[in-house]
Specification:
Radius of gyration: 20 Å
CATH superfamily of the largest domain: Isopropylmalate Dehydrogenase
Number of strands: 12
Shape: globular
Distance between the termini: 16 Å
CATH topology of the largest domain: Isopropylmalate Dehydrogenase
Structural class: alpha/beta
Strand order of the largest sheet: 2-1-3-12-11-4-5-10-8-9
Number of helices: 12
CATH class of the largest domain: Alpha Beta
C-alpha cells in the first residue's frame, strides 16, 4: 500500500514523541511491504510564532493532500494567555471542523502489569477495556460565546442538532456491535435541554441496533462509577465537553495520560491521530516523555485510515510485550525502579516488532 501521512509535531514534547512513532511506522512499512511517505507541517504554538496562525493555509493544504494526520501536542505557557486573539487550541478546533471529524475514539485499556502503579485499587482494573466515543465538532466548544460588560459577565452556548447526535451515536453502536454489545450514553438530561435532545436521539438510533444493550448515565454519576466499577463498561458515548473531561479522568485506569491514544474520524477514511495528553512543556527536551500514546495512535491510524489491521495489531502487541518485560518510562514506574527514556522505550518497541511473525 502507498500512503501519505502528514505529521504535525506541534509543541513541547510533541516533536520528540511523533519522531518515535514515525520510526515505528517506517518499520511497519518495511516489514509489511508498504510505501509510506511523511510530510511535516507547522501547527499550534510553533505555527503562531512562525506565521501568526495556529493552523496556517500551507498546513491545511498538506493535511488535505495526505491520507491521515499524526499529531503530537500543542500549547504551552508561551501561548497560554486565554485573552490572546490566536491560541494553539484554536488550531485543534479548526482542524476538526475543516475535515468534519465528528467522532473521537479514545480506547482505555488497563494493562495487568501496570495495575499496581495505577491510583485505583488493582482488583478494580481487571479486564478494564473501554472505548470512549466523544462527539468532537459540536457542543459548548463550538457554540456561540461572548464576554460582556467589560468582562463582568460571559456566556457559552451548548447546542446540538438531531443529525449531529445521530451520526456519532451510529459510530458508537457500530463499535459496540464489534465488541461486547453494550453502550453507555452519558448526558445531563435532568438539567440540560441539549442533553434531553441527546438522550431522545440516542434512544431513536438504538432501535436500529437491537443487538446492543443501551443504558443512559448522568455525567456526574458516571464520573464516580467509572472509577468504582470500571470493568462493567464497554463502549461509552458522550458529547464534546463531557467526553473531554471523562477521558482525561479515565487515564487513572491506565496508569498515566501518556498511555492513551485517540483517533478523530469523519464520514470517510481520513483521520487525525494523537495522544490525549498535552505538550508537557516541563519535560520537553529531556527525552523522558512516554511515547506509548503516540505509538498506539499510529496503530489506530493504520487500522482506521489505511485498513491495515494486522499491522495495527502488531504495534499493540509489541507495546504489550515491552510493558510485560518490565519496560517503563518514568510516569509508569514504581519509585526507585529503573526507567527508560523516550528513545530507548521506542527502540524496545521496534525490537519487539522485529520478532513478530509477518503473515
Amino acid at each position: 500500500m502507498q500512503a501519505t501521512i502528514t505529521v504535525l509535531p506541534g509543541d513541547g514534547i510533541g516533536p520528540e514523541i511523533t519522531a518515535i512513532a514515525v520510526s515505528v511506522l517506517k518499520d511497519i512499512a518495511t516489514r509489511y511491504g508498504h510505501a509510506f511517505s511523511f510530510q511535516e507541517a507547522l501547527f499550534g504554538g510553533c505555527a503562531i510564532d512562525a506565521t501568526g496562525d495556529s493552523f496556517p493555509p500551507e498546513t491545511v493544504k498538506l493535511c488535505e493532500s495526505g491520507n491521515a494526520v499524526l499529531l503530537g501536542a500543542v500549547g504551552g505557557p508561551k501561548w497560554s494567555d486565554p485573552s490572546a486573539k490566536v491560541r494553539p487550541e484554536q488550531g485543534l478546533l479548526a482542524l476538526r471542523a475543516h475535515f468534519g471529524l465528528f467522532a473521537n475514539l479514545r480506547p482505555v485499556k488497563a494493562f495487568d502489569v501496570l495495575a499496581d502503579h495505577a491510583p485505583v485499587r488493582p482488583e478494580l482494573l481487571k479486564g478494564v477495556d473501554i472505548l470512549f466515543i466523544r462527539e468532537l465538532t459540536g457542543g459548548v466548544y463550538f457554540g456561540e460565546r461572548q464576554e460582556q460588560g467589560g468582562g463582568n459577565s460571559a456566556w457559552d452556548t451548548m447546542i446540538y442538532s438531531v443529525q449531529e447526535v445521530e451520526r456519532v451515536a451510529d459510530v458508537a453502536f457500530k463499535a459496540a456491535q464489534k465488541r461486547r454489545k453494550h453502550l453507555t450514553s452519558v448526558d445531563k438530561a435532568n438539567v440540560l435541554a441539549s442533553s434531553r435532545l441527546w438522550r431522545r436521539t440516542v434512544d431513536q438510533v438504538a432501535k436500529h441496533y437491537p443487538d446492543v444493550t443501551l443504558e443512559h448515565a448522568l455525567v456526574d454519576s458516571f464520573a464516580m462509577q467509572m472509577i468504582k466499577t470500571p470493568g462493567r463498561y464497554d463502549v461509552v458515548v458522550a458529547e464534546n465537553m463531557f467526553g473531554d473531561i471523562l477521558t482525561d479522568e479515565s487515564a487513572v485506569l491506565a496508569g498515566s495520560l501518556g498511555m492513551l491514544p485517540s483517533a478523530s474520524l469523519g464520514s470517510g477514511t481520513f483521520g487525525v491521530y494523537e495522544p490525549i495528553h498535552g505538550s508537557a512543556p516541563d519535560i520537553a527536551g529531556k527525552g523522558i516523555a512516554n511515547p506509548t500514546g503516540t505509538i498506539l495512535s499510529a496503530a489506530l491510524l493504520l487500522r482506521h485510515s489505511l485498513g491495515l489491521e494486522a499491522e495495527a495489531a502488531a504495534i499493540e502487541s509489541a507495546v504489550k510485550q515491552v510493558l510485560e518485560a518490565g519496560g517503563r518510562t518514568s510516569d509508569i514506574a514504581e519509585a526507585g525502579k529503573p526507567t527508560l527514556g523516550s528513545a530507548e522505550f521506542g527502540a524496545r518497541i521496534r525490537a519487539a516488532l522485529e520478532a513478530i511473525v509477518v503473515h
